[in-house]
Amino acid sequence: MLPLGNIIKKHNIDFHSYADDTQLYISVEPNKTTALQSLTSCLSAVTHWMSNNFLKLNESKTELLLIGPKDKQEALLPSLGNLNQYVREQVTSLGVILDSDLSPKPHINKVTKTAYFHLRNIAKVRPFLTKPDTEKLVHAFITSRLDYCNALFTGLPKKSIEKLQLIQNSAARLLTKTRKMEHITPVLAELHWLPVSYRIDFKVLLLVFKAVNGLAPCYIADALSSYTPARALRSADAGLLRIPDAPSKRIRDSAFSYYAPRTWNALPQHIREAESIDIFKRQLKTYLFNQAYT
Fold it and tell me: Can you tell which superkingdom this protein's organism belongs to (predicted)?
């Protein structure tokens, strides 16, 4: 993929490559279409390079997503030219469904539908399975979907989190054969399952720990910076992160660069200073478990 990356760089376009999936990113104003011309030229160059190397661009999987206010999207459409054929209302990026508002609703709806489908199938064979075997199925088909890219779920409305929590509750009832009328919180605690909202924080904090210790990709590490007090204070050596000013409550509650340092700074210092990732995960789960159930 190195030659392909060089072609894209020549057109001054940002991109990410994942195996055979390449994503291009440009920022454009409706009245300034230079970036669109660069994108069109880039796609032509990519198509030409692939043709010369006996490859073919899969146009059926080539998609374009416009992100921004609806009025600006509509104003931009006439300038897209041949790119109009690739415009989609939703796209799937590494298994996560994105729309033009970057709303999590389409993805959560998909997760919910798929999870309940698998729960119904597991329920059919539950009478023939032991509890350990059932738990393996639950983690493979349900928990894995709740946890996948769940760091993106920070700042979601309570209603959306509850939708995901109901999936976990149903999985716990199926596993333990708990009746619907019985309270589910003690069951989750007995299973040592963190509730969905705490699982989200666990993933966010794990990413922060990796970034602080040089184990995360640069695009995650670059979103964080160490806290440096104006005067010499004990907090200078506490492993705290700087919390930037947020232009709105919505961004403060959802953007990684705001939410992550605030959540990190709230951790006890001994957890932030864990000597290894395994120790950190163990201490963090214990801390969040106590927060959730005590």
Answer: Eukaryota
User: What pLDDT shows up at residue 232?
Assistant: 56
- Rounded-to-integer distance, Cα 202 and Cα 237, Å: 23
How many whole angstroms separate alpha carbon 106 and alpha carbon 89?
Answer: 11
How far does Cα 288 stand from its chain's mean position? Answer: 20
Q: State the Cα–Cα distance between residues 284 and 292, nearest whole angstrom.
A: 12
- Name the CA radius of gyration of the chain, rounded: 23
Tokens 């897209």 identify what position? 80
Looking only at the bridges linking them, the beta strands covering 96-99 and 14-18 are unpaired
**91: part of which helix (H) or strand (E)?**
strand 90-93
Rounded to whole angstroms, how far apart are CA atoms 261 and 170? 33
Query: pLDDT (tens digit, 9 = 90+) per residue, 190-246?
Result: 999 999 999 999 999 999 999 999 999 998 999 998 877 656 555 555 689 998 887
d(CA 165, CA 161): 6
- Residue 79 confidence (pLDDT): 85
Inter-axis angle of helices 2-10 and 34-52, to 10 degrees? 150
Give CA–CA dist 268/225, Å, rounded.
Answer: 19
In sequence order, the 6+-apart residues with CB closer than 8 A to the CB of 120 are none
CB 20 within 8 A of CB 96: no
Average pLDDT, integer, range 131-149: 97
Taking only the tens place, the pLDDT of each residue in 29-48 is 877 778 888 898 999 999 99
